[in-house]
Amino acid sequence: MDPFALTDSSRLVSRARRIDDPSFRAAFEAIETPRVVWGAPEESTVIGGGAAATLTASGPDRFATIRDGADRLFASGDVHAGTEAARPRLFGGFAFHEAATDGEPWTSFPEAWFVFPRVQVTAADNGTWVTVNAVGPDVTATDVERRLDEAVTTFDALGAADREADDHGTDASDGTADPDRNPDRPGIVSRHRTTTRAEWRTGVEAAVDRIRQGDLEKVVLAQALAAELRDDAPRCAMIDRLRHRYPNCYPFLIETDAAGTPDAAGTPDETGTPDAAGAAFVGATPERLVSMRGRTVETDALAGTTGRGETPEEDEWLASELAADRKNGHEHDLVVEAIRDQLEPFTASISTGDRRIKRLAEVQHLHTPITADLAATTHVLELVEALHPTPAVGGLPPAAALETIRETEPFDRGWYAAPVGWIDAAGNGTFTVGIRSAVFERRQATLFAGVGIVADSDADEEWDEIQLKYRPILNELED
Ligand SMILES: C=C(O[C@@H]1C=C(C(=O)O)C=C[C@H]1O)C(=O)O
């Protein structure tokens, strides 16, 4: 239901209970659409299914509109979560640009969209929990408790089945640790790049000219790669592998529309079966935009990239070259300074950690953790609005960078490089930057990747870096 239609008598009821640890895949397959998956290195993994409520917004006030909607939704709460991790939360995100998500492949993704799942499965340190949520004028605690009993029975049976499969030596979780052992990639029939190498050189050189003229310091330029798939991408296996292959990243999957919406005209797709899953935005991002708990804020500056070595020695050598490189250091420092400046008005104190290397399967980045204490109680969306886009994905000065991005990129960024995350009733939350990602719509996947351009960037080197940044998703598609 639309929470903007909430009446004074509407209420939110949420109940949770511990369940018998089903595997990630069993829980994902059992849950209704639209689904969300959220993971973070120091947080519980959540799978959400169904929509007890959704919040949608657009235009310059979209952050405030979502915040108001969330406050109204949670204000009516009758919540018994049992444990903090199982408390009700909204999951969603925003488009990168204002007024941006009209065209393909983003037609199902509003400029701002959050879902309050009907069912949430949370794998926390103290076990796995199922939460059942409902919102509406007629909702009763008795109904929600009955649904919770049913959900617990379903998920407990899945947990028992997983353990039985383990006892018999069959791997119910399907060998998640080794991506090469899993042949269930859909395969790519054809690829289309939005940007040719010649166009890329022209765009990068024009940006470098602008930087040398002095009206721009840094801009992040991206490309998109549209891949037509032989089969539907198996979303469950894909997100499960991503979360194992990138343990220091933030895996996410967001389906905005529910089952049975073949297309706008209502005709089934070419296979004759309605697309059960709708569109999805999927990725495993290394970049956190912000997390807020009470008055404590944590964020990361992540910018500056090199590849991985074939041997540990080569890996170390690449990392030390990156750490010493002037161009990458400059690109990185701009991000650290901008994040500090953008957070400053909210904080009583800010501290910047030591610069280090964040190592991922295909690339290594310069990384600086930043922590702050807020001067007053704040909602995480205020921080999201203040920080997005950081110069890790936008540029400096922000207005000139956004104008350069819009003039140069021949495609719609949609939710790529934009905030994706969760909010709770207290206004706490974690948001990441939706990179290393793709949007899926039936058998079409559109992948996105970008690079920071500064005065001494080389177009061909930046082109190669983009190819590396497509790898996490391409590995999931190529058979
Ligand atoms: C824009 C992307 O990555 C960003 C750009 C980086 C860089 O230019 O070095 C590094 C990390 C990210 O902040 C992307 O992966 O699409």
Automatic annotation (TrEMBL):
EC number, as in UniProt: 5.4.4.2
Cited InterPro entries: ADC_synthase, Chorismate_C, IsoChor_synthase
Renumbered residue ranges of the record's region Disordered: 158-196
Biased composition (Basic and acidic residues): 161-171
A molecular function (GO) term: isochorismate synthase activity
The entry's keywords: Isomerase
Keyword Isomerase belongs to the record: yes
Gene3D superfamilies reported for this sequence: Anthranilate synthase (3.60.120.10)
Keyword Isomerase (UniProt): yes
Domain Chorismate-utilising enzyme C-terminal residue range list: 197-469
Pfam families: Chorismate_bind (PF00425)
Reaction catalyzed: chorismate = isochorismate
One annotated GO biological process: L-tryptophan biosynthetic process
Family: Belongs to the isochorismate synthase family.
NCBIfam families: isochor_syn
Protein name in UniProt: isochorismate synthase
Organism the protein comes from: Halopenitus malekzadehii
Origin organism lineage: Archaea, Methanobacteriati, Methanobacteriota, Stenosarchaea group, Halobacteria
